[in-house]
Structures are given as structure tokens and as C-alpha cells.
Amino acid sequence: MIEIGLHNTLLVSRTTSVGLYLSDGESAEVLLPKKYVPENCEVGDMLRVFCYLDHEERPIATTLEPLIERGRFGVLAVAEISRFGAFMDWGLEKHLLVPFREQPAPMEEGHSYPVYCYLDQKSGRLVASGRLERFLSNDNMGLKAGEEVSLMAYRQTDLGVEVVVNDAHKGLVFQDQIFRSLQPGDRLSGYVKAIRPDKKLDIVLEPLGHHGLEPAAQRILEALQEAGGFLPLHDRTDPEQIQQQLQMSKKRFKKGVGVLYKARKIEMAQDGIRLL
Predict the structure, then answer these.
(1) Res. 207: pLDDT tops 80
(2) Is 119 exposed, middle or buried (0-12, 13-18, 19+ CB in 10 A)?
């Protein structure tokens, strides 16, 4: 079976003047146009290709790498707007359609948006949707606190940054847990901090330290150890200096220092903090 919208490893079954025909080893075939045929490729070889629908809605193969595939989330730029919706540039000749009904707000040409790619059951076409939450579920997650997960940032809120977790679930990284610039579409690793009774996922970008400390306190502790036990940082230190040295806000620094002080791991002096 040839999977539309996904990568397939197929057999080169025959050659023609327009390219190669690739087979799934049974009855299905798909054309790989001549311009995408690798050098020295022969009948009997196996090729990994991406299969999608061409301008006439016929299955076709390519060796180009798409920016998104079926069942995945990503951020794509709008190439053009038509009467059907927004056409996104996903790295292939034919653009990917986001119908107007799948746009939370009208998309604009030249702007980028987080989307989900899927196969529309009614039309049989590959399309994308900006209504990400339709494709996210926090039921049957099978996750546990402390587990490492894959993330894609997709929306900034007053509380923090909402993220897609393992391409399946919805989570939130609270603002005070963000130590770096996080933009829609950024992919990174994170950790499950908590699973709430209402199935909401609290995510952090760094694991809890081996001392059981929250991330800011752990970062300060490690910086102290690397610096020989003393950091010239305190309540009167300029926020930019703290950000430059520890990659965290002054508010987050003060909270982390408080955690370390209560845990009796540091002492505070007028000119900085010292490791006990």
C-alpha cells in the first residue's frame, strides 16, 4: 500500500520517458518524475520517497523533503490566498491548502502559522488546519511526571507558551519556566512536570535536578559549582547581568535563590551568594 502524505520505501518497477514507476511490491504504482530520479538508479532498486497528490489530484512521488507530513504539526508560510483558502509553502511544487473553515482567523500572505496536516476523508485530499486543538487529546496519554517528551511551541498566552506534546497532546510551559526565546514552530525536548486531575499537562524545559530542585534553583546551583562556590549576583544586580550569566529573568533568579536558601544550600552576602 502506498501511503499518501507520508514517506514510502518503494521498489523501482519500470522506467518510462517521463520517469520511474515505483511499486509497493503488490499492485499499486506511483510515478517518480524524471527530474527527481537519483543518478544511477535502476530497476530493482529501493527508493525512499514522499508521496502526495499532484495538481490533477493524482498520486505522485518526489525525493524532495516536505516541511510537514500527514499526521504531524508544523509552521508553514502562506504562499498565496485564493477563493478556496490559504495555500502554504511546504517545500513541494504543489502548495498545501488550508481551507477557510480551518483558519481560526483569516490567514495573510507572507505570514507563517502553526498547522496540522491530514487527509480529508470527504475529498481524499491532503489539507492542513490551523485549528490545532481539534487534533490534540489529553485522554489516554500514558505519561508520567518527569518523563522526557518532544515539544512544538504553537501559541503564546498570558500564562506562558502552549505546546504540542509528542505530536498528540496539549501542554503548557508557564512563563516563569521559560529561560530562552520560544517561538511558534520551535521544536525541542521538555519534561512533564505535572499531570493535573483535569488532564492538563504542565511542562518544563529542563529536568528536575538530582537534588530535587526546580529548574531555576538547579541552574543557579550548577553555576555556583562551576564558579568555585561564589556568584556576584544579588537583589541589586542589574537584570541584564543575571540574564546574560544565567539565562533567566531576575524574578526567576530571586525565586531560585529563595529555594536554595530554604534548602540550606547557600548563604547570602551583600556582594553575592555563596555555596555552603
Answers:
(1) no
(2) middle
What is the fold of 73-133?
OB fold (Dihydrolipoamide Acetyltransferase, E2P) (2.40.50)
| H-helix or E-strand spanning residue 241 | helix 239-246
Nearest to 61 by CA among 41, 88, 80: 41
73-133 and 148-204 share one fold:
yes
**Amino acid at position 148, single letter:** E
Determine the pLDDT at residue 213.
65
Mean pLDDT across 32-40: 93
- Distance between first and last Cα of the chain: 64
Residues with Cβ < 8 Å from 179, sequence gap 6 or more?
205, 206, 215, 216, 219, 247, 248, 252
Query: Is the predicted pLDDT of residue 212 greater than 70, yes or no?
Result: no
**Helix, coil or strand: residue 124:** coil
